[in-house]
Design a protein that fits this description.
Length: 73
């Protein structure tokens, strides 16, 4: 597949995910608040490291990629 087509497909996927995020915002409020997401607050400084959320998104993206690769054979 040409690079231009891949970029267009990725853009469409990002737009669809953004639209779904807007529609289901209240149902998806757990994203970023999982048990392994680290939050530190000390005075005026706040540090937030969403480790569990990043792992979950990474696994989801990998599964989608492997399904796409398997179906395109």
């Amino acid at each position: 597949m040409e690079t231009g087509k891949q970029i267009i497909i990725i853009g469409v996927i990002i737009v669809v995910v953004g639209f779904l995020w807007m529609l289901f915002n209240k149902q998806l409020n757990w994203i970023g608040n999982l048990p392994g997401d680290f939050k530190w607050e000390n005075g005026n400084s706040k540090i937030y490291f969403p480790l569990s959320t990043m792992l979950l998104i990474s696994i989801l993206i990998n599964v989608i990629y492997w399904i796409y690769k398997w179906m395109s054979k």
